[in-house]
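#random but structural
TW: two for the price of one
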Amino acid sequence: MMCDSRVEYDSEALYLNSLPSKISADVPPQYNLNCIFLLDHNRKLPPDDSEPFTRLSSLSFVERANSGFIMRRGLVTGFIAVACSAMVVGWMSWKQGRGSGFIFAVQGLSMAPTLLGEHRIATCRVCDVRWPVGLADDPESVASASVQCFHCGGLADIVENQRPASVVVVHGYDGDQSAMEGNPLRPGDVVALVHENRLRIKRIAAVPGDIVDLDGSYLIVNGDEIPLRMGKERQLEVPLASMPVDLDSQREVSRWAGNGWLRNKSDAEQVAWENAGSDWLIYQHRSIHEGNKVSCIWDDYPCNIGLSRKLQPARRLVLRGVAHTSDRALLQVVFWIGDQPVGLTWEIERDGEFSVSSDEALPVKNVPVTTVAPVALRVVAGDLKLSRLQLSRQIEYRLRPHDDHACYPMELASDEYFVVGDNVPVSLDSRNFGVIHRRDVRGRVSLQASDRKGL
């Protein structure tokens, strides 16, 4: 297989990282070290974004167990007819410009991992990690299909039961653009917009007056990477989700190691690391795309079964876990991001969950991180036990090889917005159809209470 600039899409795609699949026995997965691809046998463009709730069968409640990576279905029984009737009213009100808000069920994969369309669940036979995968045109083919686990490389089964989509609330502008002017859209807002006579869900990346440009293949706005601008001064109504890379409690053999550190495996749900000094505990990554060889962390999306593309090294990471201390302790975490180490140190005074993002870190020197060992931590002072260590990859907005690079930089006019989808490899957004105008926006999107708890 030759590397090229084409990106093929399949309707069987959703959430987390692109992985080998056996959806078709005629098209086996094909990989090599420098050009990691999974070929799609259908060559079909997936349904993009969203449809009115009346097209779907049930509500979806999105939750994440054990730190937010397992999606569970909230069951709605006995009220489907009433709910659907309400959705019809909401949808017709929007069409006539009268409704102030309506409920909307997400379709397809454009906003994964943040918002999910209808999907199925893959469960790994080895490490028991579960994650959503997209729907195929032929449900029977997926029911008996297997995929490679993004976490350990083992075989994962796709369960037959279909899971419902995420449901959001669209707060409409009632056809009154002055309402938007009084409460202007900001980077990071998720909106419902009309493009080619179809309502779509997208995230605002740039607003009027901004300059959208490139740093290599990375999209930047006014010189900053897009995720760093989003939510810089406020909490996002629909927060950016992250995608798991390593769940230490799910591994028999850990990818973490360090002198003076002891891993307690007595309880699979509470695998804990205890330190007996100030040595580093270092994470070494292994790529399932390369036979679990030592590797950088790739920007793959496990849900995108059937996607053909070249993967890129990830450069936005987050480390989560639970800290246990009997007294004050200082913890230092360092990352290898791009071509340099960054890190931060903070004080831990009591037991509790912690989350450290490479976005918050500053350049440091003389730390043991590299491209293939991208995270390390140590206890600078005090005694500390760490459990449920979970390394995740954050969303990065890039151009794809088939996107037009020649139109950048672009400065947005007074009524123009640049929008993106969180499933960067497959989303149809401003990289495809250009900027949108203020008149195209139908309203802001917010999460239902049950969806909000999962993010």
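TW: number two ↓
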Amino acid sequence: MPSVSSLTHALSINPATGEQIGHYPFESDSALDAALSRAAAGFSLWRRTALEQRSQALIALAQALRDNATKMAEMISREMGKPIAQARGEIEKCAQLCMWYAENGPAMLSAEPTQVEGGKARIEYRPLGSILAVMPWNFPIWQVLRGAVPTLLAGNTFVLKHAPNVMGSAYLLLDAFKRAGFPEGVFEVINVTPDGVSRAIADPRIAAVTLTGSVRAGMAIGAQAGAALKKCVLELGGSDPFIVLNDADLDEAVKAAVIGRYQNTGQVCAAAKRLIVEQGVIEVFTTKFVEATRRLVVGDPLAVDTYIGPMARFDLRDELDQQVQDTLAQGATLLLGGKKTEGPGNFYEPTVLANVTDQMTSFQQELFGPVASIITARDAAHALALANDSEFGLTATVYTADLELADKFADELETGGVFINGYSASDPRVSFGGVKKSGFGRELSHFGVREFCNAQTVWLDRR
């Protein structure tokens, strides 16, 4: 099976069939230079465009996304295997994101006046310049726009370097920006090698960098941005705990755990990867969870009833299978699945591992695919300790009838987000990001608007 990239081009491989569906030559140094020049020129224009006009452009973008939703959703499904119903939902969520920021974002950029001794002062939020975004394949449109929309509203321009296996989605998104009437250079797409990314980071026309990806990629990008004294935002995934205590509503907890673990074929940064269940309900929860998982429809991502499609890349399926086999060899119990599906597609059976301990591979590492690990907690305190026993810290979920205890958990959980009696999600009204090796910086809400702004203090009549 060919790789998604080589030294000369990026390939798009349909993971449901193994067939090549796209071929995108990497751009030359001169093409990269031209794109950065367009972004710099676009910034000079865009930063001076009235905020109201930038808001209206987001409304136009929402309409362009909706007008082309079918084409874009089908491209997502064909390029990375997302079930078509989920792909359509991704496009609509992006349209709603644009509309929300168009309505609510301008107030987040308002000047903040204050009285100071000897005069007056205010804080103004000024755009930084052109922002380089290195984005992943698992949400080809949402991951891009949840960073791009608030960043563009603030007056910056956006240079997208997308994952090589979803370049078709990247160019459809670029077309949507053109249809929405954005000026040239405000949203650019570059198709370059890692060396090209390094050159872009070092280039003075790039003001800051954002990346969503692996810890390894984050360390590399973060080091390069630091060497160039440029701000960066890193969202690096996680091994999120999903805690179920003895008093939880088990039917609701199971329903949420299945969605939280298996949506997008388990290829979600903030997925419910470690199911930490208090021992008083472990047997009932496990039985219900396995039954619900067994009912999930696996198949053609373009079929409307499919819930689990193929994994996006063949190399990642091999890596996931090795993690599963290692965990089983370490003493875990296989309750469901546990192997690659026969045939040409890149499918992996929905898998449930039980009796997982904190010393096993599936506890210590992130499993990016349709595999759930069930861990027994002796009591609530042990569940909390297990949840924090991770190098990651993106989100956590707690299911309990005791909301006071849940709030205490939130105070102790070492994560960027905590979800009480509901699985993790991203929403423009609240911030999204992690701690520890899940990265730093925040997307969405007012944090996303101001993340790539110069918070400039303006003093008046200081004597």
